[in-house]
Amino acid sequence: MDEQQLRIFVSIIQHYFEAETGRPAEVGSPFLCDPAQLPVHDFTGVIGISGNRKGCVYFSSPREILREMLLRAGETDVSDENLADLAGEIANTISGNARREFGHEFLISVPVVVRGTHQSISVPRDVRAYVIPFRWHKVDASLVVSVM
Amino acid sequence: MRRLMIVDDSNIIRSKIARALGEHGLEVVGLSPNGEDAVERCVSARPDVITMDITMPGMDGIECIRRIRSLNPDVRILVVSALADKATAIQALKEGAQGFVCKPFTEESLTEAIGELFSEE
Hints:
The structure holds 2 protein chains of 2 kinds.
Chain A: H1 3-21, E1 26-27, E2 31-33, E3 43-51, E4 55-61, H2 63-72, H3 80-102, E5 106-108, E6 112-115, E7 129-136, E8 139-147
Chain B: E1 2-7, H1 11-22, E2 26-32, H2 35-45, E3 49-52, H3 61-71, E4 76-81, H4 86-95, E5 99-102, H5 107-117
Parallel strand pairs in B: 1-2, 1-3, 3-4, 4-5
Helix pairs in contact in B: 2-3
């Protein structure tokens, strides 16, 4: 994954939050991260990547962001089930939107959602993992891209 | 009133679509979390229009469109998917969908796309 390809994900995050909430996310600079130290927040939606690429993309967020997004969308049920559902849906949307640039052979799995900050997310050992940090509604979250 | 069925593995997306289109005069007659359920349900629900996700556990949206189309050739199908590449849209249209809305979507883009499905009437 080179800098230009990481920029695709940066741009998708910006577009996603702007389109869904009317308020863009502030996206920081992507950085390479040791797989043992990858950020994990309250809810993490993981998408497996196969086809012409291999690896995974995951979106990890504190509950505050997900809760606020649901409320803004008019959803009154802000149970953990719906927060988890939203984390999976965001991971799915970001990965699916990336096919516009990576092509239809960039195959994405259905999301798997992991709950809790004490969980660890397995990323492929032989693939570099980049963290794209961002902030929305004054709360920090992360997109992790580990794709070769 | 037109009868709407919503097929998406995300509960919050099903609710979002139901809220948006329910306010624009469509009656929600079915909510399905996957392709298998949608094929079964569309026989009894008799929808006039279906919104269809593509990436779902089990049967995906493309296969689901194919099967529903063989059961009900008159139903209008609008794909609502995160898969933003042209090849997926072309494949969905080839299998019998009449429209495609990319996630993330706004209420306006959704109602406009539904309106276009019936613009020839």
